[in-house]
Amino acid sequence: MVENFRNFETGPDPFGRSWKLTFRWQQNAISIRHADTIDVKYELECEGEKQEKVVALPLPLLLKVSAELKRGITDAWVMKLGGLHLIEMISTWQDMDKELVTANQDEISAYAKVIAESDRLAAA
Length: 124
Description:
The chain has 124 residues and is an alpha+beta fold. It has one domain (7-123). It contains 3 helices and 5 strands. It has helices spanning 59-69, 75-92, 105-123, and strands at 7-10, 19-28, 37-46, 49-58, 100-102. Helix 1 (59-69) packs parallel to helix 3 (105-123) and helix 2 (75-92) packs across helix 3 (105-123).
């Protein structure tokens, strides 16, 4: 798993390219979009071209998954969830035409389990 979700590389995409991702910010979207989400923004760069992606993580889903895993919602956890969603998007090319994407419950739950397993292995 990625060690530093603030600045990392992923790939290949379906076209064989690698991407550099840089974390920009995260914020409660109720203040900017009147949405009950936490938005995570990354800048993506590939072959000299840059684009921005915002991953919206619905707060009710975050609360449900965090309760299931018995863990708190932290900035670091949310940043990792957003980063893992972008890794999935790049590898499958799903929603790459969108600037704002919303992760669903199954996706958030799967990413959270990847993070929990990584944390467990790091602690061992």
